[in-house]
Design goal:
mainly alpha, 7 helices
Length: 204
């Protein structure tokens, strides 16, 4: 069993079916991320046009706009984590079905811009910076509500930067799956080489 080319799957058909299912999940996740980004930009654009009718943005309005970028950024991060786990699983468990899944570009910047998740979060961060820059308080000699709202907007922007850094530095899930597959192979090999009796629960 451990010598099976498509282990832990029974045959090639099972492995291909699993591969197609997982690839479909990745594609659907990417579509949902892009759709949410489009709707978020559209909604922020409508609000920006509404708030800018008096040709000025105050700190309260900027905070409101900046806060709406958080859900899209968090969704991009969470879906990127899920896609990373799925792609790592494919690269380890289904490498014989899809050999190219283990190939990646050595160019770090190229990989950065090829990922819609990082590009989306970066775009939102730049948008937040531009919005915050239009409402910098002119006076800092007194603690006013305007300054507090601006500082809150700046805090949200820093939080978005943290999300961007987390999105670009995900854990190495491939190493986790490689260790798990090796343990599974070792367990099966011990069972096959041992006496002709059922394996104990501890070896399963």
């Amino acid at each position: 069993m451990a010598s099976n080319k498509y282990f832990p799957y029974l045959c090639q058909e099972d492995a291909i079916q699993e591969y197609n299912t997982l690839r479909g999940e990745i594609v659907e996740s990417q579509k949902q991320r892009v759709v949410l980004f489009r709707y978020s930009l559209g909604f922020i654009g409508v609000l920006l046009g509404f708030f800018f009718q008096d040709e000025i943005l105050d700190s309260t309005e900027v905070l409101f706009l900046v806060a709406f970028s958080i859900p899209c950024a968090l969704f991009s991060y969470s879906t990127r984590c899920r896609e990373r786990r799925i792609s790592s699983y494919i690269a380890v468990y289904l490498k014989n079905v899809s050999p190219w899944s283990r190939v990646s570009s050595p160019n770090t910047w190229l990989k950065f811009f090829q990922r819609s998740s990082t590009s989306i979060v970066l775009t939102l961060v730049l948008l937040d910076v531009c919005l915050i820059g239009t409402s910098i308080p002119k006076k800092w000699d007194t603690i006013e509500s305007v300054n507090i709202f601006w500082l809150a907007s700046t805090f949200v922007c820093f939080f978005m930067i943290v999300i961007l850094i987390a999105t670009t530095n995900l854990p190495n899930y491939r190493k986790v799956f490689e260790d798990a597959l090796r343990r599974e192979r070792d367990t099966i090999s011990e069972c096959e080489e041992g006496p002709a009796e059922p394996c104990s629960e501890g070896k399963k």
